[in-house]
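Structure ticket #2291
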Amino acid sequence: MRTPRIVTFALLASTAAVPTVATAQAAPAADAPAAVQRQDEEYGRLINEYLVDKRFTTELVDHMPASDTVPSPLKFFGRIPGKPGELEYSGDIARYYKELARTSPRVKFWTVGKSEEGRDIVVIAIADEETLKNLDMNKAALAALGDSRRTSEAEARKLIKTAKPLYWITSGIHSPETGGPQMLIELAYRLAVEETPFIQKIRNNMVTFITPVLEVDGRDKMVDTYYYGKKTGNPRPPMMYWGKYVAHDNNRDGMGQYLRLTQALTKGTLEWHPTVLHDLHEAQSYLYVSTGTGPYNPSLDPIASNEWWLLAETEVMEMTKRNVPGVFTYGFYDGWVPNYLFWIAVTHNSFGRFYEVQSYGPDIQKGLKLPPSVTSREWFRPNPPLPTIDWGPRNNTNIQESAILFALNKVATDRETYLENYWIKNKNAVDIGRTGDINAWVIPAAQTARLNVVDMVNGLRQQGVEISVAGAPFTAGGVNVAAGDYVIRADQPYRTLVDMYLGVQNYPVANPRPYDDTGWTMQYLRNLTVKTVKDPGVFNQPLTLLADDVRPRGVVSGSGPVILVNHSGDNELVSFRFRLAKTKMLAAEAPFEVGGRKYAAGTFILPAANRAEVEKVVADLGLSAEAVGAVPSVASHALSVPRIGYMHSWLRTQDEGWWRAAFDHYGIPYTYFADIKARAGGLRAKYDVIVYPNVGSSAQDQVVGVAMNGTKPIPYKKSALTPNLGTLDSADDIRGGLGADGLAELKKFVEQGGTLIGDGSTVEMLAQYGIAAGVSVAETPKLYTKGAVMRGVFKDKASPLAYGYAGGEMPVYFSQTPVLKVGGAGRGMAYFDPNAPGSNIAQKVTPNETPAHISPWEPEQAKAAKPANADVPNSPFGSALPVSRTGGAEPTQHPRVVMSFPAKADDILLSGMLSGGEALQNNALLVDVPQGKGHMVLYALRPFWRWQTQGSYFLGFNAIINWDHLDAGKSAQ
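Resolution: structure written out below.
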């Protein structure tokens, strides 16, 4: 029985005035007057039964209409969303959506893509019958509103009055967040069959798209693991795999666009031009509507951030009026980095947004307690969550279904406002491109890594960016453009995207803490050059718009039995090595010239290759090669193809998946195995190289792994009960981790001649447990950074790890840890350590060591002497310990620092946020640690960060293809 309060709102919802507005196809049918619709009493009874706290309901979701032709979730599944202890597989949700489309003329169903494991990613469209019959007409109208170069102001004004907004709801990208897909089962049915004026307004005045599960592979794994625990009573395995490659980072692929789900949604956005894209998540109590704390990305059109608040305030107000606690905005997330899924809409001038709700479960949480930071009453949270509550899956369903219905109704009611906003945002992008500070971006084609240029150009094109090629050389805005250079005109609708990606980010530390990366400048992370043009005359230059991706065809020129392939840093070169695995290749250990042509250190020398075979691979990869008469007179070593072992932890596979993605993309073969298998030993007999990327845990946790608690094994494998597990790796018991035995076996592997490669937490583990001799991890309480682009300085260009990189510096990605110290005297005396605990708040007793900066009056004063020995360790013993404080034998092998941070803190940050950069000065970014007959290659930078750091990939690839000759060039030190 409804309370009087809810009855009042139900009447308001039923009698709301509805504007009679023509659609893009025909005038919509007027909303029918309030009428009594037959209700599914059993469905309504179950809603009430499963709702463990009756405050979490509204008049919109406390009932369910019945239909004689369209099956309800209860009829189709035998249960309703919100039933405790139950979840649906992605395929079953898709089957239900197909049935809705078969039985209702208000629903259409199709597939928008396939996952890496072959599952369908689906969408349904819901609207009135007439709109669905003419869906392509509405699509064309939205596309016209998206391009002011082809649509006049007058035409746009007509379309704004006749077109219908498209509101696309997505969910299930984060697999443990199970409630969105469940709720969307019910929402789809409600939108299709309910006849209240409130729902009719939505159906008659807009088009609703629903993609219930984006990460379909991970959803099915999640359901498997849940039911395994429920049906066996045994501990469930952790969700270490969602998709094939990554877990939570599947919502950080908006810029990189490597994952199938990202590509599918981007393709859909470019095709359908959604007015709103709304992604559902579960990480706040009880419902957060996205606006963000700021700073907002400065490339955003101001309309975009105002839209965030305009609609969020509707949901917060309507839910608060109904006394639903814990609905708020502002105090979560920032609005800075454009790598999230919903930013695919934002970067294409649509309205992107998201929810975060309390977890679905699906088990009931009795007496759920929340901390004061969540329950305090703040200006942005005047009706906060409660300190203690009973929470269940129906709470989750009700709160987000209610809020999203208010949002849909608001957009339907104010549809002209949102269509006009879309038109203006696109028009502004074009206008700013014509009159603003940047009229074009120029990407020189003839860069060192020219194929990396092509990869970036094609990646931008796949996101809808229009890119042209210069037909002849010209100069614009002081920028010399060569024939064949790529030019991105700024007078295009997706200028916003280009500005966000190619701009330099500046995130002052006084802002709220960043939610994710603060710097991502695309050309920096790809180690490329992009030039900006401020000159509208660039629009009049001979430019030809690319109609397709750039596909360079490689050639082998010249004649002779020896083939040379210059090491340019192009990532396709590692494919070249492995595609011709049986072909003998050498690597030049120094630059050289042949016939007046210069070749870099690392150049691939094929002494006696089958030219036809090489030509085919070179052509396919787009490389350039030259045949010469003899092997050049340059020191070289063999590029022997290694047997690669790829080790993962059963704790987490989030970051190692990006390494794996690169290996798969470029055709690097490897054997994938878990850390628990390392304990068995015999690694050197199986592998020449072991890659062990970041696990994202503490060093101790990485060694312990999934703890050996209890007596029952925790399997991760395909079975009748868990048919979706074990695709990438499997085990009868995933407990035990690497362990001390596994650490010892890794050390033995290196000592016996193997090469161990790691980054992130793996580096910390190897340093803290003393495996990487001479390398330590510094404590840095003054350092504050988050996912930024830093300057890396090559300290040893003769190392094979540096092959292919021109110049003495390059941009790299770094995020807070690990800060590596190599060697050094006087260590171990914390009192003198400038980064020791308390150093950031304690009084400095030698403040004059850093004089105040004085602006010189006389010119000769500008050449003031720098403090002497600024790079000497901060210790009273200086650069060397006295004999009385030393002991033991000197090491015979020393770490080789290949790249480090700059010597001055002010030279470190290139894009993003950094405070306390003094903690990074001169510290290592890339270290080669010899041990016994082998090597450890340790990265403080992240060479394979998401699908964004292609410029540093070869810092990793070099370690693999030169694995047994990493000592090359040492004599040059």
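Closing remark: The two ends are 83 Å apart (CA to CA).
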